[in-house]
Amino acid sequence: MNIQLTSTKTLFLKVQPPQDDSIEQEEKFSFDYQVEYPESIKNKFIIVIKSLIEHKSGYHLDTIFLAEFKIDSDINDEFKSSKFPFVNAPAIAYPFFRTFIASTLVNCGLEVMYLPSVNFEAMYKKKKENSV
Known about the structure:
The protein has three helices and four strands, in the order E-E-E-E-H-H-H. By secondary structure, the protein is α+β, with helices and mostly antiparallel strands.
């Protein structure tokens, strides 16, 4: 089976500059993702990444990022229940998301926050446990 990342795009982006430069805040990074299968296209799936960054300098960055994947056959239930769309595909998309965040912050004139590595295997296991 041939699988490829065909595109990445930002669906939503909200940047709020610091309200008060004198107050340092605790740095926070919340991150989640889900897998979506468009009904009209049988050989594509989308990783939807949602994140909220609260930088210690006070700015907030809220975003929804999409990574679209295409496979060389129709997606079946076996593929949907495999680890690939929940572990491997997000791991492929995440570096593109990290680069987007870093370049967006630089272009906004804000201090860059380099996002941490994510253990998608652990996230997958936790999501499976929570859904049972």
